[in-house]
User: Fold Lethal giant larvae (Lgl)-like C-terminal domain-containing protein from Aegilops tauschii subsp. strangulata.
Amino acid sequence: GLSLTKRTQYHYATEAAASHFSYASNPCFTSSQQHSGGIGGLRAEDVSPRLAFHYGVPADAALLAYDPLLHVLAVATRNGQIKLLGRDNTQALLQSPSPIPSKFMQFADGQGVLLSVNTQNQIEVWDIDTKRLCYLHPFEKQITAFTVLQKSFYIYAGDSFGNVSLFKLDLGQRCLVDLPYCIPFAESYGSTANGGNGVDVAFVSPQPLAESNRLLIIFRDGVMTLWDIKASRVVFVSGRTTQQQSHQEEKNVTSSCWACSKGSKVAIGYDSGDIYLWAIPDIFSAENSSSSSNPNLPLQRLNLGYKLDKVPIISLRWVPSDGKSGRLYINGFSEHAYLYQVLILNEESESRIVKMVLPITEACQGMEFVTGLSDPNKQRQTVLVLLLKSGQICLYDDSEIERYLLQSQSRSPPTLPSHSFVKQPYGDSGINVAKFYTSDRTATANEDYFSTLASKYPWLLSMKDKGQISASLSNIHKTRNLYITGHMDGTISFWDASCPLLLQIFMIKQQHEDNTSSRARITSLQFDMSSSILISGDQGGTVRVITFKKDSSDNILSILQGKQGDNYDARSIKLKGAVTSTSMISNSKHFAVGTEKGIVSVIKVDDATILYQKQLECRVSGGIASLQFELYSHNGYDKDLLIVGMEDSSICILEEETGKLLNANPVQTNRPTRALLLQTLELSPNEAPGSDNHDTALRESLLLLCTEDAIRLFSLSHAIQGMKKITNKKKLNGSCCFVSVIHGASSEIGIVLVFSNGKVETRSLPDLSLLKEASLRGFVHSKNLNSSSSITCSSDGEIILIKGEETYFFSTLCQDDIYRHVDNINMVYRKDHPLREESSYVVKSPKEKKKGLFGMIMKDTKGSKANESDANGNGQFIATTSEELASIFSSANFTPPSARRSSSLKDDENIELDIDDIDIEDNTQKQKGPHFAGLSKQKFSKGLQALRGKLKPRTEEKVNTENKKPEDEPSVRQVDQIKMKYGYATSDDSTSVPKMIGNKLQENIKKLEGINLRSADMAHGAQSFSSMAKELLRTTKNEKSSS
Assistant:
């Protein structure tokens, strides 16, 4: 069996009697709760490494998206993660299979679906209810533009060849469906295409008020075209001047947005720093309304200082403020400069520009406007969310920005808008060192209590000063997990970690003897629950012994109750060098402290006086990494030891009472490497049944030494004699930054290792075999002393990792119910829950769409009792256009070039001249009755062209076989071909193919006359229905007026 040594067993037996909490470890010294009897190593079935919860914003955030209906903000990272932030402090972390960044991200508003396009041009479909990737759609070309048509959920994807492809989002199956409708570059760009070479589609955007009818396509070179979806053609082209100038200036489009609510103006930003406003014909204007002005010249050029330094305009956003103006948010940055400005954009282009510069401290790489996620008491507050280059999120109240711009127009001096950053609620100072204690699983907890705490927690995007959130001391007995943190400003905080939203219980501010506050960084913590003693060391070399006053309560945490400063006594002592390690055992009268100077000090607990000090030599500059008191038994003789681990992995063994060095030759690794963990273990060989298990002669004491690159087990008896005997060694694959000993449910022992790249390994003892491996994607450990960074692990394998503005709660073993309220905090959206507020539109079910003509007339009659509301009108418009779009997008509007080539290469025997396949209509005059989509002029002309191509080979073949014709025959044949095209009889009266085709045309004309008669009948029927509806309307009005 495997166990901890005797001194450690006694220490944890005492502690377990005092509390139901288990001990927590630090990076340099680990002890763990110990049960009596032999203990074996962890097995693979005992281990289940997983991320229990992630709090905060990932450090490598790069992209934002927002769902205004569900109030969910998505933050994508550069490694394939997406963090979701919702109301009521809900947070969730999505992880795609491949750690690759996203370049486009957009919600299907109100549907619980998030679409993301990664750099490998794969479209991901995420279900944010189940938090899983439902569908991965590969795209053959490079996607350069991506837009979701809201309400109908069609998707436009522009590529590097200038084409626009379409997809349909199947909300039921959570997948994408390819549509045959497409917008080829040759059709949308125009005749001046660059020698047939495609130009990147920079942006595709449906035109406001005509989202289902028109699409604005902006190419990378500045050319923009307005595409009519139904007619499948270009109705407006602009920006040719920019395209011509780009050969000299190399001006490319980098951003764009609509700059008015009716879709008549668009703002475009270029990589040269230029910002142009262009006129676009809106849905209320005629197609040729722009003929009076030059479409190749912009309405306005905004000179805002970007062009001087050639700062590319990365993003543009327009927000309407009143009927005649709006605000344009402009973000530009490059490697050498950045500038973020907001200006008032009036309808009158010649008016004076009113602008402001936001004083951000670094470049901004993304922005979103978020409502209802900042303050539960301000549901309508709109917050401007800026994602900075470092990954930090900066928040501005948009109403303050608007107020500043309005005050700038008056004589009163404007006040600069205030801003705040998204920070962890651990105070203004970062965490440098921590301890973590978890209770046993049998401890009861009040679920309602933790739900109430979570509801009072400050929202992550709150603009208020979060500070520390205090838990009620009257409910201290309900605390299940205790987290103690030492901060960079010298404070020590106690936290209720029962749920991942940490609540502060108690805080100690370090003070000097003259009552001035100490700002020295806390570098070491040691807390003994049974004796209620906390030992801390800081960067300045001060060691404080804090003894809490006990009461009659059985709860160990009752020591934290009482008025600040009245429930504990503090004593301090000053040492040379920063404190790097502390160690004590329960009910002992002294403790040990190690410093960066290599000095070991043994200090009395009661009066904080030094018993002795010992200077130890280190091979390289560095101090004491680990200290451990140990009771060593050999040949029936017990000896108290103090085992010292140096930062260079040298092991020195001192006599506890006197400080005498027992091993003159310290046990050392072959080359200096940083030590992370030093732990004594006791290994018992497998004995035959009936033998004495307590014979200490059969037990071998081992030293577990974990460094950055390897794990070693040394013989303790040999180490005391100055000899190095390695019983087992395992070289690590990677740089390890944290190691801890952990215990399973049946007290099995193992070790958990955290690597600098986020890899987490669990290994068994004493064979050091790898049990399971996991990865914390996005976690990168660095030795930056100015950033908040700490790792700690409880004895049952619960790890809390803090890095910058994010916290990882990681579980190692197969145990549930560690944290309370996790499921609710992790649920940013539920399908079965209705929306918080009424949606601005209604997606109608298929059953509602299938109504007859009379039913639609009755509905229109009822709705005509008064002026129709905008909502009803919009709903009817959306339902109609959705049906039309489904019909338009379900059929190919252009034949692919490959299909045209393959059809022209068919053998003559496969060509069938079936004139019935051609849809024709009478073009002499327009029908006043109903319009039949199948009888289109375009289809008729295409049919005649196809027919002409099929007939040409036949006529030429016939000419070659008839050699007796005179020399002037070609002219006759040409006349016959012209007659044949239009269905007239030729000079040859024989039964030829052209004559048969002419007969077919005559038959189709007769068929068309029949169709005209039927259409006239239908028009007459529609008029009858209309008159009946009018009569019904008059009757209803008369009844209403009489009543």
The longest strand covers residues 624-634. The domain at 183-241+250-286+294-357 is CATH 2.130.10.10 (Methylamine Dehydrogenase; Chain H).
